[in-house]
User: Fold these one by one.
Assistant:
Number 1:
Amino acid sequence: MTEATIPLDVTPIPLPAAAPDDVRVWLVHIDLTAPLDGAYFAVMHASERARAARFLRHADAARFATVRCALRYMLAAETGADGASLVLDAGEKGRPFLAHPDAPDFNVSHSGAHGLIAISRGRRVGADIEEVPQAFRWRELAPAVLTDADRRAIDALPGDAAQSGAFFDCWTAKEAVLKAHGDGIGGGAISMNGFSVLPRDGVRYAVTQSAGAFDAISLAAPSGYAAALAWSL
């Protein structure tokens, strides 16, 4: 199977020159009403089907299943293996990996009607996409997310809409870094407010050394979403 034959709505995201050549990212378009008995869902493992069945809302099940199937198809194209036979496992802190000889690193994210898949054979990668709610009270989360440098950069922007957008840009960048690191946002060795990513120079974030040796960029996202990619140096 090649990328061109993947039976799901997956679009490659062009990356800027700041991104390493070995990193690739795709946007997954999710039909939240799709029945999970479609032919393209046959690639899922039984444990993944069971996990999808545990979701109370069909939209949540469709979101998980679509991105997981897209990941299997992408990894099959990358490795030449059958997507249904790939063994996806998780490390001690829950970070997924492919148990396959010479396996690439990957990371996924999904929110609303879209998902991200990042793959690299040269380094660890992290990806995050977030649907930005209208009138979201982001200031209540600011102490847990922002450093003083992040807050100053956001406060310097004119108007609440710009500040709210910058907060979500900051959030996605930090989550992408933490996912590349392997900790996620659940209280690992570093926390969201333990490193800065702002100010941003164009698409490139200013990731401070307290996060480790990582870089991050913003990604072009559908309207109403924010997205970011991070990678190890």
Number 2:
Amino acid sequence: MQTEVVQDQGLKRFFNQVYLFMAIGVAISAGVAFLLNFLWASQVMTILGQHSWLMWVVFGGELALVLGLSHAQMMSKSKMVSYFILYSVLQGLTFTIIPWVYDLGSITAAFLTAVVVFVTMAIYGRLTTKSLARSGQITMMALIGILAATLINIFMHSSTMEYILSYATLIVFIALTAWDNQKLKVMYQQATTTEGGIPVDNLAIWGALELYLDFINIFLSILRIFSRNN
């Protein structure tokens, strides 16, 4: 009984660390986007207008950092923290264009809705006793299909397809939020009972990145839907 209490306390501390890192990441991204728009909006617009390839460089950097963070078992905690912060900064650069496309009311409503949806599914994923592994695998396959359809739509420029993909993406990342929380719970238990596994601190940062991506995609999907409906 005492061992179970200690494990529960350790799991609680672990998830607190995960959510803290995730919140820091979201705050950094939002802060970078806000500062760029508040202080240097015209300069940023001019630079991106003249050098649109810079956004592809940012996307490439984000992908490289995600791949780097996936090797949590072999990295030091300080290096993982540095990668995570840098990723959040780069993501903030891409968020700079959001206020140019959407009005403040839609952004605020989408963000608050995303918070409610994310928290609800995070709680469900942590507390449910039903295994979500099967649904998680199906959802990942659906995500691959969505990515393929999104690439095709870059050339088709179909607003209807974009609208459908927004709903599909929202559903997929709602399901992934629940699955990722349950998956982190299982991975924590494995990390604390198996020698040579991922250090718990590293796992927390990796988990924060997973949930960060879930939340951001929920937010962007809702934002596109709200904007279309308005």
Number 3:
Amino acid sequence: MISRRSLLSSALAASAAIGLAACSDDQDGSGSSDGGGASDSATPALDGVTISKDLKKAPEVEFKAPLSIDQPDARTVVAGKGAQIAEGDTVIWRPLYVDASSGKTKQSWWEGGPAGSVTVTTDQIGEKAADFLVTATVGSRVALAGWQQDASGSMISLIQVADIDRVVSPLRAKGKVQKTSGDLPAVKLGKDGAPSLEGKPEGDPPSKTTREVLIEGEGDKTQKGDHLVMQYTGWTWDDGKQFDSSWERKVPFGFTQGQGDVITGWDEHLTGLPIGSQAMLVIPPKDAYGTDEKSGGELAGKTLVFVIDILDAAPTQKNS
């Protein structure tokens, strides 16, 4: 339910733009989604690509453009010495995206772009991508070739190189429980850490977005430009009904802070939180989905309540 702009509307998404599509089973690179046109006998796209191996420097990607990508391809450029990635892991990586048709870099962590994250499940990234990533280790430099849809709906061919930094852990807030004001809805946690409201919110909601820290973590504080990885659940204030939850999907959510990829209440009120924290946000319509049902859907005009666990925050190179 958390709205995001098209992955390539202005810049590549901080989640794994090509990592989500490069090895999926439903794209052929021609703009259709029937899987036709990718032949098993086609030459692997990355055979024609040279990628530098010095992990202390930005990747250098060389190939003769335009590079034809007839089928998705993925491989390890440098094997890391960290833990093996397992199915279901959420990994944070530092990506570089290159347009296969021109050879020009579209976005790079090493040039001020955001970090990214991806959860290694077939449902999230496709069977081929998941099968590849479970062969990789933390600290690896990996390359993926495939396609992504731009803001106009056209498919573009991309090469992604990513340095895998870490696996996100733990998958719930961990820190010191804070004394709350009592003005906002009370929360109880399940055995796995998933939150629920103890009852329907009472009284009138705040007129401005209000944040209350429920658990204070011990990590670095989040800042604009960070790629946040989080768990969340959302309810409507007027009836206390849950409308969305990453916990139920069993997949953390990731976005880049301050880029307008999510509702304003999230974009402007999740900085300055130590990693490991849990916070409640109460967000009025103006900072959520507005009042127009055509654009805001069923949540238009509603004040929303979120409980958010900040699992990790990966900074840009400038802020790291």
